[in-house]
Design goal:
Layout (H helix, E strand, L loop, with lengths): L1 E4 L11 H4 L3 H8 L3 E4 L2 E11 L26 E6 L3 E8 L6 E12 L1 H8 L4 H4 L3 H8 L15 E4 L5 E6 L13 E4 L12
Antiparallel strand pairs: 1-8, 2-3, 2-7, 3-6, 3-9, 4-5, 5-6, 8-9
Helix pairs in contact: 3-5
This protein binds a DNA duplex through strand 4, strand 5 and helix 5.
Length: 199
DNA sequence: GGTATGATTGACT
DNA sequence: GTCAATCATACCA
């Protein structure tokens, strides 16, 4: 089940709060093919997952806490949390009106700053640099210090997809609650996905 | 207070 | 395939 999606925005259009002020499921889908830069490094988003405010799998499901506070900030905010006490994971706060929804960036095709990413990750293979939410944050230097930052201001730059892309929906990964929603989106056939897009 | 559980990764059998 | 790392949060007593 894949669908072709044309770029809805002008080439190299910078994405800000207007883009993120929509249903996180739509935002996640439309982020596939977009470019994410953090500082001097970045690439093309090839995998993302949506988490809604009232979604049992979402950190926001239990209401606002110290950890998830930035999820309840304005759309276009970064939500960075620690996963398994070890890794950082980067989310884009989204949602039309209600707060508490976000999109988890799961994988990138590295495009710029390859050497900086290699140095941070301690390996060479571009296929392993950013394929996974924890790896991606390590490669880009994203940490808890970025939690609550605006996504349309440095060090973040996010640009719209510059051409048509083939996007596939699949179940989310690594969750135990609400596992059936097809809220994981990936670039069909990309070798930079964290997991294959099978059902 | 204690204990179980992760939106993961890398090392190992 | 299995499993440990490592810690904030949730939940129970």
């Amino acid at each position: 089940m894949s669908s072709r999606r044309k770029c809805p925005l002008p080439k190299r259009s910078k994405l800000g709060s207007t883009f993120f002020s929509r249903d996180p499921v739509e935002v996640a889908r439309d982020l596939i093919g977009a470019t994410l830069i953090v500082g001097q490094a970045g690439g093309i988003i090839v995998e993302a997952e949506a988490y809604r405010r009232d979604d049992p799998a979402s950190h926001s499901f239990v209401g606002q806490t110290q950890r998830n506070a930035s999820m309840f900030g304005p759309a276009g905010t970064a939500y960075v949390y620690r996963s398994y006490g070890i890794h950082w994971c980067l989310n884009f706060v989204s949602g039309e009106q209600e707060t508490g929804s976000a999109v988890l960036v799961r994988a990138l095709e590295p495009k710029v700053g390859l050497n900086a990413m290699r140095a941070r990750r301690g390996l060479d293979d571009p296929h392993l640099l950013c394929t996974g939410p924890g790896r991606l944050c390590r490669a880009l230097g994203v940490t808890g210090e970025h939690d609550g930052s605006r996504l349309d201001e440095p060090p973040f730059e996010i640009y719209a997809c510059s051409g048509p892309v083939e996007v596939r929906a699949a179940p989310r990964i690594g969750i135990s609650r609400a596992p059936d929603h097809l809220w994981r989106f990936g670039l069909l056939g990309s070798p930079f996905l964290s997991k294959r897009l099978a059902f």
